[in-house]
Amino acid sequence: MTDERYSISEVARGFGLPVSTLRYYDDLGVLPAAGRRGNVRQYGRAELRRLALVQRLHHRGMVGLADTAALVADGPAADAPPARAVLAASIETIKNRVADLRHAQELLEHLLTCPTADPVRECTYLRAELDEAVEQALAALRR
């Protein structure tokens, strides 16, 4: 099997990314190019696989970019947390986001069925939530 090389524009098009994102990843060390042909970055299958991993971890919102960089690095950095710690923290973040999204869905479903004429402005359930949010913000200011 030959290690065919693909230009940065081909890879960007194939993965649905702007070329600037690939350059940024290269600058951060997240996805170094396999080499260059003239001034054009070239990528082989190993780099494409790594990009697919970055997309799954970062683009799908599972792991932040700094943690993604640490996870896909060729070797562990001295100050980087262990991979399993990064993964565990990411799972907690996702659980919190899922809970937030469920709450948002419940609120929107309530507003959709709220019997008031203008649920966004007149719903007592929403008004109570907004009052609670205001009280929390004011309490934070008082600290």
SSE topology sketch:
Layout (H helix, E strand, L loop, with lengths): L5 E2 H8 L3 H10 L6 E3 L2 E4 L1 H15 L5 H8 L10 H31 L5 H4 L1 H19 L1
Keywords: DNA-binding
Protein name: MerR family transcriptional regulator
Pfam families: MerR_1
Describe the structure.
This protein is mainly α and 143 residues long. It is 66% helix and 6% strand. It has 2 domains: 6-72, Orthogonal Bundle (Multidrug-efflux Transporter Regulator, Chain: A, Domain 2), CATH 1.10.1660.10; 83-142. It has helices at 8-15, 19-28, 45-59, 65-72, 83-113, 119-122, 124-142; strands at residues 6-7, 35-37, 40-43. Strand 2 and strand 3 form a beta hairpin. Helix 1 packs across helix 2 (19-28). It starts with 5 loop residues before the first strand and ends with a helix.
Shape: elongated
- Strand/helix succession: EHHEEHHHHH
Number of domain modules: 2
Q: What is the mean pLDDT? A: 89
What percentage of amino acids are in beta strands?
5-15%
Helix percent band = 55-70%
What is the count of DSSP helices, taking H or I runs of 4+ residues?
Answer: 7
Question: How many strands?
Answer: 3
Please give the alpha-carbon distance between the first and last residues. 64 Å
CATH architecture of the largest domain: Orthogonal Bundle
CATH class placement of the largest domain: Mainly Alpha
Radius of gyration: 23 Å
Provide the CATH topology of the largest domain: Multidrug-efflux Transporter Regulator, Chain: A, Domain 2
Structural class: mainly alpha
Major sheet characteristics: 3 strands, antiparallel
Low-confidence stretches: none
What is the spatial order of strands in the main beta sheet? 1-3-2
